Amino acid sequence: MNAALNVRPKFIVDAKGRKKAVVIPFDAYEKLMEDLADLAAAAERREEQTLSHEQLLKELKDDGLLPA
Q1: What distance in Å separates the CA atoms of residue 45 and residue 13, rounded to the nearest whole number?
Q2: Fewest CB within 10 angstroms: 13, 14, 35, 49, which?
């Protein structure tokens, strides 16, 4: 389970008791931001063509990122 889901947030409310802001531990905030960035990257790449494992290895070798 995602550690950020186990956080007990504290809410800042206005004079009528309506929630206006939330306070969470900084490490939970960082994890949430990282997860959000990962989800955004995945959504942006959703329509990209996929490569087979063999093709990926070939391209990495051709680019000098893996030994030939």
Answers
A1: 38
A2: 49
Residue 48 to residues 36, 38, 39, 52, 58, Cα–Cα distance (Å): 20, 16, 15, 13, 19
Which two three-digit tokens encode residue 24?
A: 């969470």
What is the model's pLDDT at position 1?
A: 46
Phi, psi values for residue 35, rounded to 5°: -60, -40
∠ CA 29-5-12, rounded to 5°: 60
Where do the structural domains in the chain lie, given as residue ranges? 3-62
pLDDT one-digit tens code per residue, 5-51:
688 999 999 999 999 999 999 999 999 999 999 999 999 999 999 99
Q: How much is the pTM?
A: 0.60
H helical segments located in the chain = 26-44, 53-62
